[in-house]
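pasting input
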Amino acid sequence: MLKVLIADDEPPILQLLETNLGLEGYETRTAGNGREALEVIKEFHPDVVLLDVMMPVMDGWDVLRYVTQAQLDVRVILVTAKVHEDDRLMGWELGCDDYITKPFDLDELLGRIADVATSDFDTAAARRSAALRELSALGR
Amino acid sequence: MADRKDLAEAPEQPGPGTRASRRRSVDRTRIAQQAGLSSRKKLSLTHVERRRTQLWTVSLFVVTAITVAIAVLALGGDLLPNELQLENLSSWIILVLIGGLALAFLIYVLDKERNLRALSRMLIEEREKIARLEEMDRLKSDFVATVSHELKTPLTAIIGAAKTVGTRGDRMNEEQHARFMEMIERQGTRLLRLVEDVLDTSRIESGGSHLRREMVDLRELAENIAEDLAQTDLGTDRVITVIFDPDHPTAWGDPTALQQIFGNLMENALKYSDKGSKVTVTVQETATEAILEVTDEGHGISPEQIVTIFDRFRQADSASSRGSGGFGLGLYIVKNLVATHRGDVEVESELGRGTTFRVRLPKRAEDGREG
């Protein structure tokens, strides 16, 4: 059973994702801020983290930075209302595995979780560099 | 600049013109005021330019006049001067010319100096205006970003919940079903409140709020709000106590506006305090005013933040308020509504200890008569 951590400071979003992932057969945990998310990552060892960016105490950027630097074996999907190119760029540069904007389509989100969870290191790296290439092409 | 007002208006004086032209001139003045920099700046520069030319003309004219006058005086009335007179005359004229030139030069220097000062003052004012406009512009784009972000959360929840019930409803148990339906309703209400806040703000800014004045029972008002809030996410694990003195304090004002004032302050108190803490609302009526106090045991507001807390689009801490959402318009709306009731609102706070908001709504002469 794949394990997913959902980190968001909005209770309705947590409830929404937790219920749907549960119905799809994932084992879930939730966190209301970045620091909580890191604690849960360390003891729950999730396969995938759905990570909001704007959270109190510690934001999603810092969580992602920590995960990348500590080389934790976990895939991170940023799920955020931030749509700006600079934010996307930041996310991919910090090493996220996917970037999904709110409001999201539930089925698409579930599909991407499955993709990310099952892809190996090379596929993830390829996806990241493709996203970065696309964004830098937009910037020019 | 004393003649500042003239600068903007003088070149467009319509004179005893028709109503249309007068209206146009008013329009243009207003546009000039709104647009601020460009048009007025142009007007002022032309004005300075024109004054300089005038001064030059006047000083040259004065020098010529003095020269001619002295020449006439020196001639002593004789139209044809003799040789001695001519010699005298030429030295007089040279003296007067030198004096006149010196005078003209002096006037020129003083004038230039004054213009320079006026210009630099204008430049500073324009720079300040640009800085103010840039700040406003920045706040507005921040506002748009905040608005779209804040709208997205309830929208995500509503769309997602509806979709879940629609596509996975058969796999959901009764409790999950009920929770999702409730989520749709609550997030819809939240969306509505956010939209209303934005509308209230734009109404305040266009100055178009018409207030009713009637006797409002503040006890009923505060108790209803406390009841409503107790049923929200925020209210479930925080306690609101409402204290009255006398039993039914009243105020003259607009019921909707008073409800917003009370509601925003009470909701804020809950929003910025931790679970399990207490919010105390005190409503008093004295001979001269009605006083509302809302005290929380929350995070408090730092002295730096307290200065701008009533400004539009400000939030004490964007992160700490996230959970319950909001545009940072609540206190701005409160301040403006209290002001339209000729009252005032003040805040005392200590970081980590809590915050008290105090609203005073004065009674006016006619209120006493009617009440």
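fyi The longest helix of chain A spans residues 121-139.
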